[in-house]
Amino acid sequence: MQAESEIVRFNRLLAGFAGKRILVIGDLMLDEFVWGKVSRISPEAPVPVVDVTGESYYPGGAANVARNVREFTDRVAVMGVTGADGHGRQLLDLLEGSGIDTHGVQRDAAFSTTVKTRIIARNQQVVRVDRERRTPLTPEQTDRAMHHLDRMADDLDAIVVADYGKGLLTQPLADHICRTALAHGKILTVDPHPHTSLSWPGATAIKPNRAEAFMAAGLPPSDPVAPVLSDQPLLRAGNRLLQLWKTGSILITLGEHGMLLFQNGSPPYPTPTRAQAVFDVSGAGDTALAVFTLGLAAGATPNEAAELANRASGIVVGKLGTATVTAAELQAGFA
Question: Between the chain's N and C termini, which has fewer beta carbons within 10 Å?
Fold first, then answer.
């Protein structure tokens, strides 16, 4: 493919993102950023004292995947659970304020909204504080989630699942999502959680990171090798997961080493990192999942979708906070 025709092709795919109908299912969180400056060490303990200069709040977890999708299409819905608390209301306000459909979000007084607080000073994360309580769905909540998916399925182009292991996703719900996607011929992409050990039969693509891939494949972790096609342990892990997960594609994200795509019947396809600078990796996997799914929904091949996802991730890590990539930024990356 010539460089000019490649640019034309990717621009056509990006234009096809608009109007795609995407449902994001997963653990919803609120990301809090406390910004400040450090001028001294505490006299009480050998830790920095952060003088707070500001606070910011963003949708996190699966809600951040939806927020990334929303940068490219105005037809985005999210399904999950929040607490009937102030943080849950704040999260819903953020989602609704950005035009994301929240009719599939259940509010539960017995559920505690997950909040991740990152304290940032001099563009560096000083500490992260997590407030969460893992609460599995009740049978009634699971039924409501299934019925909501059934009502939406015909009108969707793709379903995205982001499992953060907070209790929303169980095997019965995962099985129903897979059956529904298959029955309606919808794209289904999954970001799995290593500790839930859920299976996703028939998924279009699954996107673990390197550590998750080795854990799921039952292989001991190993240090990265460059170039990635020489990384024999990684190749074994990817090929084993293709057999275990029985999915169309597996996209393993590798941080500074880019991504590696596995497909049955095709050689592994590497996409080296496009990042120019790395300030914050918060949410980079969410961006990759969102753009990879949109690419597939717009008619991209898995290789092309991986290239789009990799370029989007390379942009977002150059921003501070739980950031997103705009269509204009991604388009400029192919100029």
Answer: C
